[in-house]
Write a structure and sequence with these properties.
Blueprint lengths: L1 H4 L4 H15 L37 H5 L2 E5 H8 L6 H12 L6 E6 L12 H14 L14 H13 L4 E5 L2 H13 L1 H6 L10 E6 L4 H12 L3 E6 L4 H10 L5 E6 L11 H11 L2 E5 L14 H4 L8 E5 L9 E5 L1 H10 L1 H4 L6 H16 L2 H17 L7 E7 L1 H13 L2 E2 L1 E3 L9 E6 L6 H14 L1 E2 L13 E2 L1
Parallel strand pairs: 2-11, 4-5, 4-6, 6-7, 7-8, 10-15
Antiparallel strand pairs: 1-2, 3-9, 8-9, 10-13, 12-13, 14-15
Family: Belongs to the class-II pyridoxal-phosphate-dependent aminotransferase family. BioF subfamily.
Protein name: Aminotransferase class I/classII large domain-containing protein
InterPro entries: Aminotransferase_I/II_large (IPR004839), AON_synthase_class-II (IPR050087), PyrdxlP-dep_Trfase (IPR015424), PyrdxlP-dep_Trfase_major (IPR015421), PyrdxlP-dep_Trfase_small (IPR015422)
């Protein structure tokens, strides 16, 4: 593998220098791999992770359509229709009705609001893998990964994810949020460990450059890193490579990191991966990509945006999630072996969290295999994108489309019409998006049909006019605005 054979980066050398300091202080946190006993299995037998045993299919199947359907309790549906979505009193009363099993009526809708992009949530192969693991292994994780929870199932999942991302190693988490928090904290701890001081000089600090619209988990992780005293934070304009280049050029810090989402979840636009790779060559920064919405959806094998734009070996660390296109739950960090050791020792959200249960990990492993082999699902997403563009004229850059409305109450009114037409969408407002940019966020999936797209395109075309929000560079992004 190319990334494994290349010379060590300066960042690997920093970590190599810092790890012995953890060992000398007895603060290195080793993983404790173990196999768990399987019901009915002979002593000494190994769990089989043969990918050929995972059944896959070509083309949409009857169960796939179930992944695009949703049922709303009639009381909640009525609350949406009455414009009472943001009221807590009605929510309490509604929950009381549902929890007491008094709710008898449901409204069937087609789902356009989820992140099950490939439609794997009803796939029988994944369900069988989860059920088999539960029957054989129980429900446990039994502990944290540093105590007794790190099993051969977790190691197998890490291995298949590392291969997908073309990296040496991988570390799995209970969520993508936890993965970003751990990584930012781990980066922020390098200088204090190397210098032995929580107050290093400005020049000694790690300069981290973050896209203005990065996910909240990155933002919160960076706040934690700043609190540790070893980081100086710089925010660059959204996807603006000229601004990033200027900030990198002006910065005198030796250690530089650039962190960005690959596909931005509320706007659907992509980071300029090729230009970022070029800037990395120019400035020599450490490149971190959060590929939560790109993994399994983009790239020939589902390797994400880095694979799509042929810059997998330029990305130093890739963060991903298993709770979106993989239709499971959890997060991961794909990186070098030495970085894995550093993160597991300094990432607080990893150290102090119980690891994912074995059945869930088994389902995630099956999802990775199925997602890679059933490449037709990625093609179907592209087909839905083309159809949506043809019917609305909206330039569709990814599987996420934002119809910008502006005022949150106005967005709720527009969303009522979508829901009333049998299309489940959600009006999104602050703090998830900036003030006065409330929107209807639509997701296009592999298990929606051409007829589904026609129905939603008719409504979108009724409202959409082209205008670019002021915080978006018009040369890179166009949103539909009411």
């Amino acid at each position: 593998m190319e990334s494994m054979g290349k010379m060590k980066s300066s960042w690997d050398l920093y970590v190599e220098e810092a790890l012995p300091k953890l060992e000398s202080r007895r603060t290195f946190a080793p993983l404790r791999p173990m196999n768990v006993s399987t019901a009915g299995q002979e002593e000494g037998a190994q769990t089989n992770f043969d990918e050929d045993e995972y059944e896959t299919y070509q083309g949409i199947q009857p169960w796939d359509r179930l992944a695009s359907q949703i049922k709303l309790p009639q009381t909640f549906y009525q609350r949406l229709m009455d414009g009472l979505e943001l009221t807590c009193k009605n929510e309490r009363e509604e929950h009381e009705i549902i929890s007491s099993n008094q709710e008898k009526q449901f409204k069937n809708l087609t789902l356009f609001a989820g992140n099950d992009f490939l439609g794997l949530s009803r796939h029988p192969t994944i369900a069988k893998a989860m059920a088999k693991a539960a029957m054989e292994q129980g429900t446990g994780p039994r502990g944290s990964p540093l105590i007794c929870g790190y099993t051969n199932y977790h190691m197998a999942l890490e291995s298949v994810l590392a291969n997908l991302k073309k990296k040496e190693a991988c570390l799995v988490f209970t969520s993508g949020f936890a993965a970003n928090m751990a990584l930012m904290a781990a980066i922020g701890s390098i200088v204090p460990v190397l210098t032995g001081s929580t107050r290093p000089t400005k020049e000694e600090k790690v300069a981290i450059f973050s896209d203005a619209l990065n996910h909240a988990s990155i933002v919160d992780g960076l706040r934690l890193a700043e609190h540790q005293g070893g980081v100086e934070l710089f925010v660059y304009k959204h996807c603006d490579m000229s601004h990033l280049d200027a900030r990198l050029t002006k910065c005198k810090n030796k250690k530089k990191v650039v962190v960005t989402d690959s596909l931005f979840s509320m706007d659907g636009d992509m980071a300029p991966m090729v230009e970022l790779a070029q800037l990395r060559k120019k400035h020599g920064f450490f490149w971190v990509v959060d590929d939560a919405h790109g993994t399994f959806v983009w790239g020939k094998n589902g390797g994400g945006l880095a694979e799509e734009f042929n810059c997998e070996y330029d990305v130093d660390i890739c963060v991903g999630t298993l709770s979106k296109a993989a239709s499971s739950l959890g997060g991961f960090i794909a990186c070098s072996k030495i970085w894995k050791q550093w993160i597991q020792s300094k990432g607080r959200s990893f150290i102090y969290s119980t690891i994912a249960p074995i059945p869930l990990v088994a389902a995630s492993y099956a999802s990775v295999v199925v997602a890679r082999k059933e490449s037709w699902r990625r093609r179907e997403i592209r087909n839905r994108m083309k159809e949506f563009h043809a019917l609305t004229g909206i330039p569709v850059k990814s599987q996420i489309v934002s119809v910008i409305i502006g005022d949150i109450m106005e967005a709720i009114k527009v969303n009522q019409e979508f829901v009333q037409s049998g299309l489940y969408c959600v009006a999104v407002g602050p703090p998830a998006v900036p003030p006065n940019t409330a929107r209807i966020r639509l997701t296009l999936t592999a298990v929606q049909t051409t007829e589904d797209i026609k129905r939603i395109a008719a409504l979108v075309s009724k409202y959409a006019k082209f205008k670019v929000p002021s915080y978006i560079d018009s040369s890179r992004h166009i949103s539909a605005r009411l």
